[in-house]
């Protein structure tokens, strides 16, 4: 697996000067290209189409189209972190949906950024939507978390907003909307996106309940192999650890990739973890 090589952005000084260029506030007030009336009409149409959607894929398509009204090309939804839930069994089953650049998703796994996502950490303690620039300038944000934002910008995710979606027992999902432009979304746009995320979240829950929350079934050996892939082990190393040949490891990993409909073992490991099939 080859990863795109990018240069690490120099660390930004703490204090008032720590704002990175990708979070320029110039033009932060409403940058929407449509009028208020057109946005309201688009939101009504979004709700109508959402109600006619019959599967999670269609729901994701609907909210993706609506987000483009605010120049949000990239969106991601999922419960990547949660607190203790006494009603969960076997680690729980979790859904994730994202159209983030594949290169960025793979790079995050390689660098371990999926485990230190600053927007997820912030969502634990906030119920309202927040701009990424607000997290970036928060004194408690660590240098490692700043690096996540800086390097995300190198892949085209230069500004964004995250909406926490809290549920019972401390569980929560997040919906993030990202732009290629280096300016923040206005308050009106964020309000619409927060409403859209809420309705989308409710519909996803409904779809999961109707479907019985079914996920691809992996064999015990497939789970074991993809778990070691998630920990960064090669087929040769995995074979030595669990006592099978590298070719047999590849066989099981390819089965996981097929079942999870992914094109690489790295993305398969990431998806398996986010679905709750494995817990690295």
From TrEMBL:
Q: Please report the stretch or stretches of sequence annotated as the HTH luxR-type domain.
A: 211-276
- Family matches, as SUPFAM superfamilies: C-terminal effector domain of the bipartite response regulators, Pheromone-binding domain of LuxR-like quorum-sensing transcription factors
Range of residues in the leader sequence: none
**GO annotation terms (biological process):** regulation of DNA-templated transcription
Q: What are the protein's UniProt keywords?
A: DNA-binding, Plasmid, Transcription, Transcription regulation
Q: Where is this region: Disordered?
A: 1-21
Entry GO MF terms: DNA binding
Gene3D superfamilies, per database record: Transcription factor LuxR-like, autoinducer-binding domain, Winged helix-like DNA-binding domain superfamily/Winged helix DNA-binding domain
Name the domain of life this protein comes from: Bacteria
The record, for InterPro entries, names: Sig_transdc_resp-reg_C-effctor, TF_LuxR_autoind-bd_dom, TF_LuxR_autoind-bd_dom_sf, Tscrpt_reg_LuxR_C, WH-like_DNA-bd_sf
* Keyword Kinase recorded: no
Q: Which PANTHER family match?
A: DNA-BINDING TRANSCRIPTIONAL ACTIVATOR DEVR_DOSR
Name by which UniProt lists this protein: HTH luxR-type domain-containing protein
């Amino acid at each position: 697996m080859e990863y795109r090589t990018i240069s690490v952005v120099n660390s930004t000084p703490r204090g008032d000067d720590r704002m990175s260029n990708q979070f320029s506030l110039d033009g932060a007030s409403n940058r929407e290209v449509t009028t208020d009336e057109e946005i309201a009409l688009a939101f009504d149409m979004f709700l109508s189409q959402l109600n006619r959607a019959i599967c999670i894929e269609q729901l994701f398509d609907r909210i993706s189209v609506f987000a483009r009204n605010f120049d949000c090309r990239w969106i991601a939804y999922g419960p990547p972190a949660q607190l203790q839930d006494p009603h969960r069994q076997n680690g729980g089953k979790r859904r994730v949906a994202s159209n983030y650049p594949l290169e960025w998703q793979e790079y995050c796994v390689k660098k371990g950024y999926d485990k230190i996502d600053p927007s997820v950490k912030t969502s634990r303690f906030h119920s309202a939507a927040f701009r990424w620039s607000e997290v970036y300038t928060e004194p408690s944000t660590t240098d490692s978390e700043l690096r996540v934002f800086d390097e995300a910008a190198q892949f085209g995710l230069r500004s964004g907003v995250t909406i926490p979606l809290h549920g019972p027992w401390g569980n929560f999902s997040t919906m993030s909307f990202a732009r290629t432009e280096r300016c923040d979304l206005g308050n009106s746009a964020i309000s619409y996106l927060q409403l859209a995320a809420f309705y989308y979240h409710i519909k996803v829950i409904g779809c999961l309940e109707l479907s019985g929350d079914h996920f691809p079934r992996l064999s015990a050996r497939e789970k074991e192999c993809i778990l070691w892939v998630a920990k960064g082990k090669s087929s040769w190393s995995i074979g030595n650890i669990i006592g099978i040949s590298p070719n047999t490891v590849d066989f099981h990993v390819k089965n996981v990739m097929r079942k999870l409909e992914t094109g690489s073992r790295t993305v398969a490991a990431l998806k398996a973890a986010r679905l709750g099939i494995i817990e690295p």
